[in-house]
């Protein structure tokens, strides 16, 4: 098990290195191929209406006139060992891992992301619990009661859930449940440690809105897997041996069905934790996703780059956890030594 974890960690670090190189290539090399000058690159860091002196100072400060290989090594050095940014007589320390310095907000990128990360974690993990429990439960019941009224209604609702975008269902929820019927409070995000009750009230509607889309997908996936598994010979054997229907369904039929569910769950959680952009913007949650959108609008390149790398880290970590969960979900899966 330890050797497997070490191998997976090594593969994850290699993947992060590749993602870092590709991200650097997209943000720094492609613009040069498109004819963007070092001054044009510096304009993405300085902000709106920069002066020629500010552009020249930014080009020199960031080494944008240096060869690409030198810039990439400087970028890696900042990630691994930190970096210093000098503004006249002022020097700003960017501790490792330094994801860059935002000239729009005049501060390092990583602390700003970490300040907003609890909002995204609250949104993503809470919604994941709802969509997994709800989606899998509905899928199991629909498979067991195939062709029933519940099955048709549940799958019809799931189809609607997959089809409707988050910004549509979110705005409807805000219009009716918050402003019209006043079932939920209109307030800003409250940390869990300050007021757990208010935190739950504020986050519940964004959880349900985000989970509705994913729960529909999980319900359809679970139903399809359960129908396939229930037709296997070992299920008929288990029933012939006199096992209870609950034991047959939950122990023998559901566990192998959960393997693909766990796989897509790792990807979904990784992407959500990287920034649930639409949900955060609809419900005015100041999380990583909303931060990324604001940075795209203001062309704050270091922030865009930092959020991209953060999303890659979450996806790699979630996939490692998924690989370790496979033997627990399905005992037929064995981890190679």
What can you tell me about this protein's structure?
With 337 residues, this protein is mostly helical. The chain has helices at residues 2-33, 38-46, 52-62, 68-81, 109-144, 149-163, 166-180, 196-230, 233-240, 245-273, 277-282, 288-297, 301-329, and strands at residues 83-87, 90-94, 101-102, 107-108. The chain folds into two domains: 2-108, no CATH class; 110-329, MetI-like (MetI-like fold), CATH 1.10.3720. The protein has 13 helices and four strands. The chain has a two-stranded antiparallel sheet with strand order 1-2. The radius of gyration is 24 Å and the shape is globular. It starts with a helix and ends in an 8-residue tail after the last helix.
Stated plainly, the CATH topology of the largest domain is called MetI-like fold
Through-space gap between termini: 6 Å
Question: Approximately how much beta-strand content do the residues carry?
Answer: under 5%
What is the spatial order of strands in the main beta sheet? 1-2
The overall strand count is 4
Secondary-structure element order, N to C:
HHHHEEEEHHHHHHHHH
Shape: globular
Could you tell me the mean pLDDT? 86
**Continuous helix count:** 13
Top CATH class of the largest domain: Mainly Alpha
Q: Tally the structural domains.
A: 2
CATH superfamily label of the largest domain: MetI-like
Largest sheet entry: 2 strands, antiparallel
Rounded to the nearest angstrom, the radius of gyration is 24 Å
